[in-house]
Write a structure and sequence with these properties.
Layout: E1 5-10, H1 18-35, E2 48-52, H2 54-63, H3 75-89, H4 94-100, H5 112-122, E3 134-140, E4 145-149, H6 151-154, H7 164-171, E5 181-184, E6 190-195, H8 197-200, H9 204-212, E7 233-238, H10 249-252, H11 257-286, E8 293-296, H12 312-328, H13 330-341
Parallel strand pairs: 1-2, 1-7, 2-3, 7-8
Antiparallel strand pairs: 3-4, 3-6, 5-6
Keywords: Hydrolase, Lipid degradation, Lipid metabolism
Protein name: Patatin-like phospholipase/acyl hydrolase
GO molecular function: monoacylglycerol lipase activity; phospholipase activity
Length: about 350
C-alpha cells in the first residue's frame, strides 16, 4: 500500500505563533530521536504544508532549502524568529503611538522590522524553490479575491512565482497592525494584499482542497498518491491558542464601530478556526477515518490573547503554554508522531 499523504496546517495568530512553533519543535526533536537522525526535519515527513499569517511564516521557514536542496532551518530556528525578533517586529515607540493615534489613524506598527527579519531568513528565494507543495493564504484588496500561494503554481511559471519573503509579508499583513503588502511576481505582475486570516485563519480545509488536486507521484514528496481523498490523508492542524476572553451583552450592546474593531477580529479568527475544525472532523468521520485527522489547539494558560503582546513575560508565557500542552497530552502527541513516521 502507498503511504498516506501527510498534511501539516498552521493557523494565524501573530506572536501566538510561538505556541505551534513550540509544539512542532518538540515533534521534530522526537522524530530525530526515533529515526536516529539529528538532521531530520519536518519537511522530510510532510507532503504538503499550509499556513495563514504567522502560520504562513512558519510554513515558509520549514520549507526553505539550502544550496543542497535540504531543509535550511530546523523547527528550533523557526521558533527563534518569534522569541528573538518578535520584540522588534511589534515595537511601538511613543512617537509612533502619537502619530498613529494608537493605531486608529494609521497602521499600528511599522513594517521595517518585519521586512528585515523576513529578508534575513528568506533572502531572494522564490516559491518555486521551496521544498514541498504548500498553501499560503492572502487576500487581494484591489481585485477583491482570495489568493493562494503554492510552490507548484510557481514552477516553470513566472506569472505565479513570487519571492518567499514577499509571500510571508503578504500573508501576515494584518489590517490595523501593518500596512498592506504590495508585491510582484517574477514578471512583475503586481498584487496588493492583506493577511489571509481575514478569510482563512485556519487554512486546513484549503490544504485539503489543494491536496485533492495534486498527483503526488509527480511531486518531490514522501507520498505518491494521485489526487488523494480523505481516506488517503493524514492531517495535523495546529492552532495558536484558544480565545478565552468573553464579551458581555451589557457592554457590547452599546458598542459602535471603533469599539467593535478588536472584538470582531478576535471573533472572526476563532470562529473561522472552529468552523474549519468542525468541517474536517465531519469529513473524516464520514469516511470512518477520524484517527487520521488531528487538531491541536492549546489553552493560552497565563499568556495574553493579543496578537502583538511581545513583553518578555508574555513571550515566556506563550512558550510555556506550548510546553504545558506537550506535557499534558503526551499520549496524543506520541500517536501523532507514530502516524507521521508510519508508511
Amino acid at each position: 500500500m502507498s503511504k498516506k499523504i501527510k498534511i501539516l496546517s498552521i493557523d494565524g495568530g501573530g506572536i501566538r505563533g510561538i505556541i505551534p512553533g513550540t509544539i512542532l519543535n518538540y515533534i521534530e526533536s522526537e522524530i530525530q530521536k526515533r529515526t536516529n537522525n539529528p538532521d531530520s526535519r519536518l519537511a522530510d515527513h510532510f507532503d504538503l504544508v499550509a499556513g495563514t499569517s504567522t502560520g504562513g511564516i512558519l510554513t515558509c521557514t520549514y520549507l526553505m532549502c539550502d544550496e543542497n536542496g535540504q531543509s535550511k532551518y530546523s523547527a528550533a530556528d523557526a521558533l527563534n524568529i518569534y522569541l528573538e525578533r518578535g520584540g522588534d517586529i511589534f515595537s511601538l515607540s511613543f512617537w509612533r503611538k502619537l502619530w498613529t493615534i494608537f493605531g486608529i489613524r494609521r497602521p499600528k506598527y511599522s513594517v521595517d522590522a518585519l521586512e528585515s527579519a523576513l529578508h534575513d531568513y528568506f533572502g531572494d528565494t522564490m516559491t518555486a524553490d521551496l521544498k514541498r507543495p504548500c498553501i499560503i493564504t492572502s487576500y487581494d484588496i484591489r481585485d477583491r479575491k482570495a489568493v493562494f500561494f503554492n510552490k507548484v503554481d510557481g514552477v516553470n511559471n513566472p506569472v505565479r512565482n513570487y519571492k518567499v519573503k514577499d509571500v510571508a509579508r503578504a500573508t501576515s499583513a494584518a489590517p490595523t497592525y501593518f500596512k498592506p503588502a504590495r508585491i510582484k511576481s517574477a514578471i512583475d505582475a503586481p498584487l496588493v494584499l492583506v493577511d489571509g486570516g481575514v478569510f482563512a485563519n485556519n487554512p486546513t480545509l484549503c490544504a485539503y482542497a489543494e491536496a485533492r488536486t495534486l498527483d503526488f507521484g509527480k511531486q518531490d514528496t514522501p507520498g505518491d498518491i494521485a489526487f488523494p481523498s480523505a481516506e488517503d490523508m493524514f492531517v495535523l492542524s495546529l492552532g495558536t491558542g484558544t480565545e478565552q476572553e468573553p464579551y458581555y451583552y451589557d457592554k457590547a450592546k452599546n458598542w459602535g464601530m471603533v469599539s467593535w474593531i478588536q472584538p470582531i477580529i478576535d471573533i472572526m479568527m476563532s470562529g473561522n478556526s472552529e468552523t474549519v475544525d468542525y468541517q474536517l472532523k465531519q469529513m473524516f468521520k464520514a469516511v470512518k477515518k477520524q484517527g487520521s485527522y488531528h487538531r491541536i489547539q492549546p489553552s493560552l494558560h497565563n499568556a495574553k490573547s493579543q496578537m502583538d503582546d511581545v513583553s518578555p513575560q508574555n513571550l515566556n508565557a506563550l512558550h510555556e503554554a506550548g510546553l504545558v500542552y506537550i506535557a499534558n497530552n503526551e499520549e496524543k502527541i506520541n500517536k501523532v508522531i507514530d502516524q507521521i513516521l508510519a508508511d
